[in-house]
Design a protein that fits this description.
It is a single chain. This protein is α+β, with helices and mostly antiparallel strands and 278 residues long. The protein contains 7 helices and 14 strands. A hairpin with a 6-residue loop joins strand 13 and strand 14. The radius of gyration is 32 Å and the shape is elongated.
Length: 278
């Protein structure tokens, strides 16, 4: 908290913003705040003044001389009567009105009950004084601040519900074909959810991937035009090549590997010696 000569500000002694790029709200409580204290609000902030749970005022950019219910008792008189502490306890809450980046991650299941992981990145901001009041009214403080991680925690179930409505009825290999529909569903559902807290949703990006690495590689191979069995063969061939096995090309085309002209075990020569049969 930065209070010097009764000047209240959201900047610390080094001039750094206490809200930064991660905090959406910061609460300052100080018994020395009395009538006449100067409240400074930066261009990217709102400020809410509360006393004993009641909102006294909401301030936008500028510097303001506070007028509080203890006005008849000011300055040194307050200090003398109450041993240096004001009889009133005020809360100064700074609200970040800049665009903030929030990320949410989770797991959903496809129509085949295959697990997929998703990541949703979106930008939020507080647009109006009324929205700032909605934020501090509906979103509780966990300590002295509300950060983007808390927003992600609150919005997580809403995002998960919107994603599952589409993913759970879609085959794993077809999910990317529905990514635009999925994005719009999440954006609409999330915007309605955040609006209750006075938070405006801006842009949103969503990424959905099979949770199992092998499934991701197999689906990528099928995207090249391979059939499911061909994709399995090429996947096997890649793994064999990583181990340095010379038979990897044979695995890719589904052909037996012959050493020294001798047929592999379980095979025999046909009469015209044109190939091998089991």
């Amino acid at each position: 908290m930065a209070i010097t000569r009764q000047v209240i500000t959201a900047l610390d002694r080094d001039g750094l913003d206490l809200l930064g790029a991660k905090n959406i709200a910061v609460k300052l409580v100080d018994e020395s705040i009395v009538s006449g204290s100067l409240l400074t609000v930066e261009s990217n902030h709102f400020c809410v003044l509360k006393a004993r749970g009641a909102v006294l005022n909401v301030y936008e950019t500028g510097q303001y001389a506070l007028t509080t219910p203890d006005k008849p008792i000011v300055g040194s008189i307050v200090q003398g009567f109450f041993g240096g502490a004001s009889p009133w306890v005020y809360e100064v809450i700074y609200i970040n009105r800049s665009k903030l980046l929030v990320s949410s991650r989770g797991v959903a299941t496809s129509a085949e009950m295959a697990e997929v992981s998703y990541q949703v990145d979106y930008y939020i901001h507080i647009d109006t004084r009324e929205a700032a009041l909605d934020l501090i009214t509906h979103l509780p403080f966990n300590g002295q601040k509300i950060d983007t991680q808390e927003i992600a925690d609150y919005a997580g179930p809403a995002i998960e519900q919107a994603i599952n409505q589409i993913v759970q009825v879609t085959k794993l290999e077809d999910i990317n074909a529905h990514i635009a529909e999925l994005r719009e569903a999440v954006k609409s559902h999330l915007a309605d959810f955040l609006r209750v807290y006075g938070i405006m949703l801006n842009d949103l990006k969503i990424l959905v991937l099979p949770r199992d690495e092998r499934m991701r590689e197999l689906i990528s191979l099928q995207a090249l035009g391979l059939t499911p069995i061909e994709a399995v063969r090429y996947y096997l061939a890649f793994k064999m090549a990583d181990k340095g096995l010379v038979s990897a090309p044979n695995a890719a085309v589904g052909a037996p590997f012959i050493i020294g002209g001798q047929p592999p075990v379980g095979f025999y020569n046909v009469s015209d010696e044109t190939g091998l049969k089991t």
